Please model this.
Amino acid sequence: MKKIILIAGGCSLAGLLIMMIALISVKGRISEFSTSNVDSVKQEYECSSEIIKIDADITSDNLEIRTGDVEFISVSYYNRPEYYEYEISESGDSLNIKYVDLNGPIKLFTVDLDFEDEPVIITVPKNFAGKVNISSTSGNILAETIHTSSLDLRNTSGNIRIYDVDTATDAKLSNTSGSINVDTLVCKNLTASNTSGGISIENSNIYEKLDTKCNSGDISIRSVSVKEGARLSTTSGTRYLENVTAEYLNCDGSSGSLKAVDVTVQYDFSSSTTSGSVTLERVEAGSGFKISASSGDVRGTIVGNEDDYKISADTSSGSCNLNDSNEGTKKLTVSTTSGSVNIDFTE
Model:
């Protein structure tokens, strides 16, 4: 214990010493620790040739990318002299945008008190159809009204928003803290993962597979068509689907409910929930259902006739309105540990 106290005391003294040195170096003027007294300088960059790949590494600013009335890609951004600047360069058919921190050992303690919204704005021509790779540490990313061959957006702390984007191949979205919101996306495969924050996908068309995962946050899928399979996985959060079509659908969750409304699956619908209810409203599955819930009710309506299903229902604690049957061509397997089963059929 004494050793821990000594180490902690030593760290505190070291930190105090560094702060004292910093104060002496700026002659005690606390304002020197703020970048708010440093004017931002607006810069414009226009590419000199056609670009088919964009790589942007943004630290704390918001970033927006969209189509505009330009011949070549242009970038609007702000530098803050002596604190940070952006390095923009072209290498062959690639455009590179990189945030450069100009802080020295003393300026390491500066605090940005300038809350003006000064995003980096990338404007691409109407015929652009290249690759877009963007990473951010602290800031929002917006991709709006743009065509790409592939899209890769990564964020640490901030939101990711997509609106009216057409991607020829894959779209990959990953976040650590913040929301992911997708509206009107066309792509081959969509992968979206979030550590702390929700995922919302609406009005989109996925040609092959959709894969979504949240550790702590809700997943909402509305008016989405997936040609092949869709997977929703949550550790702590709800899963909601409405007006969704797919070849197969897999929904897994440790803690949180599942609700599916007007969902059509060509083959299998499967759901596994540790803690939370499962609600189905007018859900259809060509091959059948496999639903398990450790703690929670399973209820709702399935499209079709009860006689179409080979039914296996098991409840350890709770009521069940289904009778086991071996007659149907489809399968309906429902099991709960602590909860009731109440499933009706539309026919």
In short: The radius of gyration is 26 Å. The longest helix spans residues 2-25. The chain is about 5% helix and 60% strand.
